[in-house]
Design brief:
Helix content is about 80%, strand content about 0%. The protein is mostly helical. The longest helix is centred in the C-terminal third of the chain and has 26 residues, at about 75-100.
């Protein structure tokens, strides 16, 4: 196994042990006990993902999406699940940005 593979395994282990991941897993296990809530949360997640990948006016569409799902977001299990997932995703983004900022990789398409 080369050095990159070894460090990748260590990074994965560190991520599995971080508080954000533990919080996400706890929230996920709680919401899985309520399939209808999980389904609603997943629909919101899907629509939010599609919005992020679209060329639409993200701010206006995100506001519309939040208004549409306001009642669902007031459910503590749903809110905690989505918030925990978001917190862990931020950790993953930080890891990715830290790696990318230290590499001389041309990702500019302009």
């Amino acid at each position: 196994m080369n050095q990159v593979q070894e460090i990748t395994l260590k990074l994965a282990e560190a991520l599995l042990g971080c508080p954000e991941y533990a919080r996400y897993q706890e929230a996920r296990s709680r919401i899985l006990k309520y399939p209808a809530l999980k389904q609603d949360a997943d629909m919101f997640r899907k629509r939010n993902y599609e919005l992020q990948c679209s060329h639409a006016d993200v701010f206006e569409e995100a506001d519309h999406l939040r208004r549409e799902y306001t009642q669902m977001m007031q459910e503590p299990l749903v809110y905690e699940y989505l918030d925990a997932e978001s917190a862990f995703c931020r950790v993953m983004q930080q890891v990715n940005w830290r790696i990318m900022e230290n590499l001389n990789l041309d990702v500019d398409f302009a």
